[in-house]
Amino acid sequence: MAKVDVRVFATLRKHLANDNSDGRMEVDIGDGDTVTDLCVALGIPEEQVKVVFVNSHKASIHQALRDGDRVSMFPPIAGG
Fold this sequence. Notes:
single chain, 80 residues, mainly beta, Ubiquitin-like (UB roll), five-stranded mixed β-sheet, 1 helix, 5 strands, 31% strand, globular
């Protein structure tokens, strides 16, 4: 089984266990799993993820993941 380092920001943090309130955790993934599969495993609704980075590069929610990848997910951000 492979592992990825996951970082979630802002309102997405509420989906992590209390001991991961800093928004970081290591997650086991299966062969061929995508960011979408990761969202399902973490209980994060796909529509709440607006921006994804894999290994510091902008990625699609359908990006396949590999062992050791760093995944960062951000919700829609408003501002002015």
